[in-house]
Design goal:
Elements: E1 7-8, E2 12-17, E3 22-24, E4 35-40, E5 43-49, E6 52-53, E7 66-68, E8 80-82, E9 91-98, E10 103-113, E11 117-124, E12 129-138, E13 143-148, E14 151-153, E15 157-163, E16 166-174, E17 182-188, E18 191-199, H1 205-222, H2 226-232, E19 234-239, E20 243-248, E21 252-254, E22 259-261, E23 268-270, E24 279-287, E25 290-298, E26 305-306, E27 317-321, E28 327-333
Parallel strand pairs: 1-10, 2-10, 18-25
Antiparallel strand pairs: 3-8, 4-5, 4-9, 5-6, 7-8, 9-10, 11-12, 11-28, 12-16, 13-14, 13-17, 15-16, 17-18, 19-24, 20-21, 20-27, 22-23, 23-26, 24-25
InterPro entries: CD80_C2-set, Ig-like_dom, Ig-like_dom_sf, Ig-like_fold, Ig_sub, Ig_V-set, T-cell_Activation_Regulation
Pfam families: C2-set_2, V-set
GO biological process, one term: cellular response to lipopolysaccharide
Length: 337
Amino acid sequence: AITWWLVTWEEIEVTGLFSKDCILPCSFPPGSDEVIHWSKENKKVHTYYRQKDQLEEQDPHYRGRTHLFHENIPSGNASLKLSNLSMTDEGPYTCYVGTAQYPTEVKVLLHVLAPSSYALEYQKTNTERRLKCFAFLTYPAPNISWEQGNVSIQETDREETRNGDLYSVRSDKDIVSTTDTYWCHIDFHHGVWTAEWRMMQGRNEISSCIAAEFHSWLQSQTKDSLSAVGQHGYGQCKRMLTSVLASFNGTAHSHQPRVQIDKTDFSLRLDHLTADDSGEYLCNISTPHGTKLIVSTLHIGELLLLPFQKIRNISRLLWQRLPSQCLPSVATNCSHS
């Protein structure tokens, strides 16, 4: 009598990017007369025997998107290349290999990441202020919620579109009280992205609050992933017409002759003030985990000195002048979740 022992391996997790290719690994003890079956639940993904592919019963969803490395099969490699990933490709796969000597089974769990990005936009006109919270190209459709002063509130407007497997959602909220803080929370597949908006109260609050609050916020949001934020963090400060005053992207830059930026603490100095410099200024810093926007008002007669404590997590800092009336100001994060 011949006794067969099924060789099994612990489940392997693989992460692929939407619309890209990935390889589902499967190795087995080399033998002869190889039979290879790749399946996902009850779907036949790819079949190989008699030294060639046998795809007559392949599920239509995988047609033309699977590939075995035939030259490597004799050495024990039954890995499958899956092309043009879709979100519905995500899930558990089984690789079964039978030879004249041993049967082998390998479990592979595939995660597919969407090219998602998130943004908070602040708009101001003569009659209203509005926040717009965006989730671009996500799967599944995310849940967007709002808070005002730690109280849950309803959105003002909402729009959802779909492009193939992917969803894009915009949620709007009118600002009815400039003394309150507003939060937008986007609950997506693998976590939560949070944006915060507030308006500075009082002329002398600028120097005392911005650096400390941004430092505290960055530390609390990124304490488990400082290196990631160091590579992908984004910060900016703007004035309510869109003109860039100064920026930091590894190196500090001043974009106007009257502007100086301190390379040690990122504070900004605006010299030779004129009446046109009066108005609202918007500061924001964004990381892959969220965005914080602070609006402050410059009154001529004061020296504008807005300090930013040097934070190792910020890879880009931007000072920008914005208009007195309608302005779209967007802070975005473009890394995968």
